[in-house]
Amino acid sequence: MKRNNSRPPQKNSRPQQGGRPQQGGRPQQQHAPRSENQIPREWRIVVGNHAIREALLIRPKKVKGMWLKNGWENSADLKELEALARRQGVKIDTRQESVIDKFGSSHQGAAVFVDGAPEFDAKNFAKHDKSVVLMLDGIEDPHNLGAIVRTSWLTGAHGVLIPEDRAVGLTPTVHKVACGGVEHVPVEATTNFSKHAEELKNLGYWIFGLSPRGTRSIFELDLPEKVVWAIGAEDKGLRVTTERLCDELVFIPQSSASASYNASVATAMALTETLRQHAPRGNRKKSQSDE
Q1: Does one domain contain both 207 and 238?
Q2: Last residue of a domain, one of 115, 136, 162
């Protein structure tokens, strides 16, 4: 049965973390950090070539500086990033690779510092005819969060909510794994899922929680136009308090009950099913990997 998309009024109820001269007469960013101790806590530390490129293209005025490892000139990828940063007016400094290592051993030789991120605005999301938001309940693995943000970007999710405590935030590793997705999908840390859930419900969203206690498979649902997926931690699943915020608990079928899906894999399956149902028939775009 097709679900009614309208809702009745609701009751009240850090990161882990001389200069190269600017060329070409471009304006330089001011106050770039000279050491890791000078990086403000509100700045994002972005590593990974794809993530850095996306930050430079999407919000160049918010990039406060770039660090390149000594010897960057020997890398074609780093030369490309350096040229892009210079064109965007970003101040570039060189550092020993061991200094950048403090942001994560897989940094690929560069890091940028970004002040600001996409804004989580539920009222703006709700203006879309079809919308999906994620509520991640205690994801602690940065690789999982990074993969979820990347998938959210590619499937058109409008925002991600994460807990402020006992969960991973937007660390350098998350940025690298997300491959630029953080620049497109708002990720907001909150101490109050209940407040956001109430606002989203009032805006017409239905909240579905992934849980082995669900009574229906995600593939049995006729999804409404505005969906929130609640996904629990890798080992514990959804907390009881988060389950109570859901309109319905649902499950993903599996052939064995002795294990469970990885959080990022489960999220990808839910988002892909949402994209499939929301896409106009006969007008579904192929991914690059399909071409």
Answers
A1: yes
A2: 115
> Considering only CA atoms, which of 49, 89, 92, 38 is closest in space to residue 68?
92
Same domain, 181 and 251: yes
Q: Answer whether residue 170 is part of any domain.
A: yes
Amino acid at 253: P
Q: In order along the chain (291 residues), what is the average pLDDT of each group of 10 residues?
A: 47 38 39 72 94 96 95 95 96 93 89 94 94 96 96 97 93 96 96 95 97 94 97 89 96 85 95 94 51 40
Q: What is the rounded CA–CA span in Å between residue 4 and residue 19?
A: 60
Q: Considering only CA atoms, give the Rg of the chain.
A: 21
Same domain, 63 and 155: no
Please state, in angstroms and rounded to a whole number, the distance separating the CA atoms of residues 161 and 163. 7
Q: Which amino acid is at 45?
A: I
Distance of CA 229 to the CA centre of its chain: 14
Per the structure, the complete domain to which residue 102 belongs is given by 36-115
**For residue 179, what are its two tokens?**
């491959």
pLDDT at 189: 95
